Amino acid sequence: MVGLFVGLLVALAVYSSFRFVDAQRRAQVSGIGALETGIGGLFAIQHDVKASGIGVVLNGQTVCPTMNIYKGGTVANGTAIAPVVITAGGEDEDSDSITIAYSGSVLANNGIPLIAGMPAATSVLKTANVRGIAVNDFLVVANPADNLPCTLMQATGTSASGFGYDIAHATTSTWNPSSPGAAFANAPAYPAGSLVYNIGQITFNWVTYRVTGGNLEAVNLITNEVDVVANNVALLKAWYGTSNGTTSQIEQWVPATDAWANPLDAAHVTTIRAIRIAAVARSQHPEKPSVVGGECDVTTVAPTSWPGGPALDLSGNSNWRCYRYRVLTLVIPLKNVIFGVSGS
Fold first, then answer.
1. Residue 192 lies in a domain
2. pLDDT tens sequence across 238-247
3. Type and span of the H or E element at 22
């Protein structure tokens, strides 16, 4: 009897130890999983934000306040565009979304001027040189001086003409509408002095990061393709870091509300120097309550972002207390905007 009693005590001790070790293991695995999820998601956003602005801003000023894009149908019709735009969620429990625009080639920062105006929106682009523009390269045509919308085109041919070159953008490409006037509300016949930006074989990048159903998604706004970047992301919040518009120094951090709500005017766009992000990553599996039959209590207090930053309200999920969370914050400079600012 004594031996049986001792054996039961040992078994109970082993079982208790096993439960404790397993709980610690699950806590560590959940925490690491949430951390890896958050890092992966922020890395994807950081990659695009660092490239933002190529072919969109020049010398710190907006080249393309709006954009015309056609791909077998109208994609953007004088749509406001900026290197980075944050759209605030309606409530604290709603995620913000981040839209990023940039060209895929560094050549897009070196515009080629038109030496003659276009008689019509379908006319060839007349330039003094082509600087490597080849058939099937994508072009962004802009005229910042007249505040005209930029137009994304695809080159279908180049030929010497007089003292310069003609760059054709015929309707043999699905990126070039047969009737720009029907495709766009404002289809400019760009005047002489307008700029042609070569972005090569890579199309214009225009992507929105959003949280849907616990997944961080990247939405290609040109093709409407949706890619899941990271799973188990509970919340995404972002603020602008703004300057006085003439220097690279950040003077304040502001949410994308009120005067900073989307869409932004050019005056606001040219003062943005960085964005600050808080991503809340969640453990993959819920954990049991500490009291059998009780309410979940693995997380009892919602996490915080940064001092003075946005509130992180997880109550949109009624079972939010059943999960573990990691909050990752990151400041990402808009380097292509900053490098174009002449001030210090």
1. yes
2. 999 999 877 8
3. helix 2-51
